[in-house]
Amino acid sequence: MNMAENKINPSYPVCTQCQKVIKVKSNQIECQKCNLNFHTRCAKKKIREFRRINYCLQCIQLHNLVRYNPYYDTLKELEDKSDNDNKKSLITDEPPESAEILEEFSSVLENCRNFTLSEYNTECIAKKS
Description:
- Helix content is 40%, strand content 11%.
- With 129 residues, the chain is α+β, with helices and mostly antiparallel strands.
- The strands form 2 sheets. The protein has a two-stranded antiparallel ribbon with strand order 1-2.
- The longest helix is centred in the last third of the chain and has 14 residues, at 98-111.
């Protein structure tokens, strides 16, 4: 929780948007990356849910959190449907290793990063050394 800004009562967080104290009975949303707090009504302007996790717009842009990954939702749906069953049993028309292949593709897309030209050149030089 972001409580450093509340000088009146440090046990209550302060809404990053309106700068008012978020009281105990108030609904709040917290960015899962930077831990900034928002009233629910204020969060509509500053918080986005991405892959079932709340992030503030600043973190989404700063950390490049939104990624293209068409396999992510498919895998999550399989996990939700299976509860504790084996994911492979849900894919009846495909070979048993289909779930593992989707997981691998998804992992590659989740872990890729953007480079500026100078960052890319630095990475290439470092790998050659």
